[in-house]
Amino acid sequence: MVDQATAGDKKALETLVCDVQDLVFNLSLRMLGTFADAEDAAQDILLKMITHLSSFRGDSSFTTWVFRIAVNHLKNYKKHMFAHRPLSFEYYGDDIENGKIRDVPDLTQNVEKDLLTEELKMSCTNVMLQCLDTESRCIFILGTMFRIDSGIAGEILDMTPQAYRQRLSRVRKKMADFLGQYCGEYGGGKCRCMDRVNYAIQSHRLNPQHPEYTSSVEISAETMLQVKRAMEDIDDLSQQFLFCKPYRSSERTKYLIRELLDSTQLSVIRNS
Question: For residues 123 and 216, is the Cβ–Cβ distance under 8 A?
Fold first, then answer.
């Protein structure tokens, strides 16, 4: 199919893009922290995949090749919000401990609080990943959300499988320790999303009129796992991170990719 797409078969190219666009979008979402940034980065990555398709030699699986392109792009991506406003576990923990959540009036704008609570939960746990340095975040996402085999993950990240497993173990523990100390949803902490909804709205972390996570189409974990072949057994610790839910890539991304595939400029882009 890659050969057909490289030779100009539009249907083959469209199939390849459709097969990986949700993977690319979810990797971008977890690496960058917001839907808007993930949409932009996913489009860049898919365009890069299309324009470099002729360089794929089949030395690895196609998915591994795409992941390598995506990871390299995202590790150096500087246009996202958190590149300019970096977070840390210390900052996040201090906000949980000292944020004056009871001084904020009702700002829910008649939107159901249960829906906003779920939106905040998904947003908070995703943004929490931004407290990790870029490479640790990437290791955590590949190992915990995508559950990629250590040999393949090492190939993607240019490290040995042993080094990858060691780093994954350390970063999982760091995340688990933070959740255990502060988060009342996934750990033993006192923080409850329902209690912080209005505070999050006041801080512009949550927009009652434009929920993103709860309005997106969720993909089952099994469906995500079916698109790749190499998996490690899931250890007990990874079960603590089931908040890393996968979603369908946005309609905006799909529309722009369809426009690109239908455009006369595609042949120019691919030949440049």
Answer: no
Averaged pLDDT, 129-137: 94
- How far from the centroid of its chain's Cα atoms is residue 67's Cα? 12
* β-pair partners for 247: 218
pTM: 0.83
CA atoms within 13 A on the CB side of 249: 27
Amino acid (one-letter) located at 216: S
Q: Please compute, for residue 9, the number of CA atoms within 13 A of its CA located in the half-sphere on the CB side.
A: 13
How many whole angstroms separate alpha carbon 142 and alpha carbon 124?
19
Query: What is d(CA 264, CA 243) in angstroms, rounded to the nearest whole number?
Result: 41
CB crowding 51-73: b at 16 or more within 10 Å, else e: eebeebeeeeebbbbbbbbbbeb
Residue 75 binned pLDDT confidence (cut-offs 50, 70, 90):
very high
Tell me the H-state helices in 131-215.
134-140, 150-157, 161-182, 197-202
- At 228, is the pLDDT very low, low, confident or very high (cuts 50, 70, 90)? very low
Do 21 and 81 contact (CB within 8 A), yes or no?
no
CA distances in angstroms from 196 to 116, 118, 124, 189, 191, listed in the order given: 10, 11, 11, 14, 8
Three-state SS for 80-104 is CHHHHCCCCHHHHHHHHHHCCHHHC
CA 128 from chain centre, in angstroms, equals 12
CB 139 within 8 A of CB 168: yes
Please choose, from the candidates 237, 23, 19, the residue with its C-alpha nearest in 3D space to the C-alpha of residue 140.
Answer: 237
Query: For 260, what's the count of Cα atoms within 13 Å in the CB-facing half-sphere?
Result: 20
Name residue 183's beta-bridge partners. Answer: 191
* Cα separation, 127 vs 77, whole angstroms: 16
